[in-house]
Known about the structure:
Elements: E1 5-13, H1 18-32, E2 38-45, E3 52-59, H2 62-68, H3 72-80, E4 85-93
Antiparallel strand pairs: 1-3, 1-4, 2-3
Helix pairs in contact: 1-3
Amino acid sequence: MSSPVIVIAQLDAKPEFAAECRAALSPLIAATLQEPGCLRYQLHQSLESPRGWMLYEEWESEAALSAHQQEPHFLAFVASTRGWFASTSVRRYQLA
């Protein structure tokens, strides 16, 4: 059995889109938590910036993560927020 896949996604919204980004994250999180293979999907607010967030994700497997990236709610979030972020960073980890 493989170890869970951890994803750390850091999102920094452009100032003019901060409120819209935060609002768009709520339905994404609610839907993602219902997905098979999603063990954890938590949003964290930056202490340095009101427009910075970090998503901590834990997935049963690479297959579960790949399936998430094809879900309609994920694709809708990506499409609707295009151009709203000053920067993004997504990193994947597993137990060493």
